[in-house]
Amino acid sequence: MDAKLTDRFGRVHDYLRISVTDRCNLRCVYCMPEEGMEFEPDESIMSFDEIAAVVRVLARHGVNKLRLTGGEPLVRKNLEQLVAMLSAIPGIEDIALTTNGIYLASRAERLRAAGVTRVNISLDSLRPDRFALVTRGGDIRKVLASVEESVRVGFDPIKLNVVLMKGINDDEIDDFLQMTRERKLTVRFIEYMPIGHDDDGWRSRYLPLSAVLERCAVNGWTVESAEAVYGNGPSRNYRIAGAPGTFGLIHPVSDHFCETCNRLRLTADGNIKPCLYWTDEFNVRKAIGDDDAIERLFFRALDIKPENHEMAQALMKAEQSHTPTVRRMSQIGG
């Protein structure tokens, strides 16, 4: 194996998040504006062959875990073909998918056969009317059907991602926790992040995840630390005593996890992002066909990767050491 992808702070990067499209069939309130979103033209989006070429280089440097994101990755035609290409690359051990679940039920079996091992499904409300409001038109029945189909085809683990927003879905914490008491699922509560919209609207909806543990205490539920579910990354994991499932807390704002960061991002338009929050990007498309040039770009990205993302300073409107990205989450790949 060639030299591992290690940054200035000794963090070894073995995980690449790949956005395959900036388009989405929903308009979730924390991710995209309702109108006026400008999407990349088709010719600006990386081809499957280009993505595979980058992954082949990184696999030689120890990258063994991939996650396909968007936008909504399942709006990309023939995604199963890309999955098969990536799973055939020596060194790649795990391919995960993050999806809103609207199209997953009909494609889960094919994705599993192609090489997807696990899925994260966004589910920000269990109430049909509220789900439609948060997603601006989503049908929760399709998402719940995708959860069931994911269980049937054998994705493991299955994680449900809940972006917690004050005054919007914080009254459903108990309902999500109850799911873990009934089924072997992992519910992950995620703090609302200021990606692409550092404004007072974001601050007014931000809620620290201490609220989840507080609800457990109110309900008299004993909470135990749980072993990390495979691929859970920055999540702190818990189990309500006796529950078959677990829940995780991902709190990038109130308690950042940057000291253990092992991930890089590749945007749909071919940019390497060493950190989700900062504006720094390096376009890799121009290097396709020159493996040495691809390597140099990734090591250059690691050389400038900051020690942390300073989202807490954004909450407090304090000065930051770098420039936050103006790109929306859908343009980066969540």
UniProtKB/TrEMBL annotation:
UniProt binding sites for GTP: R17, R67, T98, K159, R263, L264, R265
Record pathway: Cofactor biosynthesis; molybdopterin biosynthesis
Pfam families named in the record: Mob_synth_C, Radical_SAM
Cofactor: [4Fe-4S] cluster
Record protein name field: GTP 3',8-cyclase
Keywords, alphabetical: 4Fe-4S, GTP-binding, Iron, Iron-sulfur, Lyase, Metal-binding, Molybdenum cofactor biosynthesis, Nucleotide-binding, S-adenosyl-L-methionine
Organism expressing this protein natively: Paenibacillus hemerocallicola
Gene giving rise to this polypeptide: moaA
Recorded superkingdom: Bacteria
InterPro entries according to UniProt: Aldolase_TIM, Elp3/MiaA/NifB-like_rSAM, MoaA, MoaA-like, MoaA_NifB_PqqE_Fe-S-bd_CS, MoaA_twitch, MoCo_biosynth_MoaA/MoaC, rSAM
Similarity remark: Belongs to the radical SAM superfamily. MoaA family.
CDD domains cross-referenced by the UniProt entry: Radical_SAM (cd01335), Twitch_MoaA (cd21117)
Binding site for S-adenosyl-L-methionine: Y30, G71, S122, M193
Function: Catalyzes the cyclization of GTP to (8S)-3',8-cyclo-7,8-dihydroguanosine 5'-triphosphate.
Residues annotated as binding [4Fe-4S] cluster 1: C24, C28, C31
